[in-house]
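Q: Could you fold this chain for me?
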Amino acid sequence: MVGEDKTAPVYAATILGSWASYNKLVSSNDDDWVDRLNHLYTVILLAIFAVFVTGGQYAGNPIECWVPAHFTGSYRSYAKSYCWVKNTYHVPMDTPIPSVKGERSQEELTYYQWVPVILLFMALLFKFPALVWRGLNGLSGLSIDKIVTMTTSTQYGDEAKREETLEHISTFLDRWLDTRVKRCLRRNLISRLCACCADRGGKILTTIYLLVKFLFLLNVIIQFFLLNAFMGDWYHVYGFEVLEGLSSDENWTDSARFPKVTMCDFEIRQLANIQTYTVQCVLPINLFNEKIFIFLWFWFVFVAVCTSGNFLFWIWRALVKNSQAAYIKKYLSILDQVRTTEDKKLARRFAEEYLRDDGVFILRLIARNTSDILIGDLILKMFNRFKDKPAIKASRTNDDEDHL
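A: Sure. Below is the predicted structure, expressed as structure tokens.
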């Protein structure tokens, strides 16, 4: 029998295992492209920007200040370093410098020294929901990533090896579907969760995945509030300001949001006297910061739209039972397994009573990362196993006798 194959333990060790590994920090196959848009592509983008800005700050010349003529070299270096560490403030050229110190502090720029740090922190927030998913999906007792990876690896391999791998995957999925409730209820810490989600509906994986989808959506919304707190209360409308500036005749490149020319106040103690100086500085780094945060505004809007649409789509899939049965019937019909009314009823029982929510969810994830031909073959193998179960055979025999 296939279940007694000596190579089965090898595949079992491949599929089942601990989630705590380096691979959990990078991309995997247990999600869809919208998830990867959040936790992979956006994280890479933010990391690249952070490295670029860091290089501009430490390898380049992020600030230059116009100092009085009597300042020597050490004085110039001190003024430059002080104005970089201490926040500068922006006053337009056609506006007098406020005489009150408090009014100057209201126009301080507090972000430019911390741009690399905030970009890396944002990247961590985008990665966090994926780490939650990597950790929680292991509670089901099955490594979805390894199952999808094994299935994907068979697409272009040897035909015999492909059939063997699909046979083993269908075997382990069959065992998992039969024992998932018992396996879950052995874990005391999550017994209540399992009782609600997995006892009747087989929804523990689906529920966790929808939770992670919500975290992705919540995160991209929080990013705008985070940048508002970091840069000012204007960032959530920054993209509209840029579009308005591009459509008008104004020179939007001289933006007060990322000024290139700023002012800096500092004091020098000379014996008992304290002398105050106000110097004018230029921030070349803001030329890059401006373009980076313009791009990020539009990128975050794009990610938010994709994530919200994807989240609603998966909710519809989880709540509408007919969509799950129709999904399975589609592949069985293509494979000529649904011919009569009895076949349609059996296919519905296969989807709703055997696969249930979590089984259909895993097949959808596999389909997202493979081809229709491969997922069709896997569904067919699992459907044949379902029909060979004693309870199903007895039920079909009784139906045939009643029909006669």
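A (continued): The radius of gyration is 30 Å.
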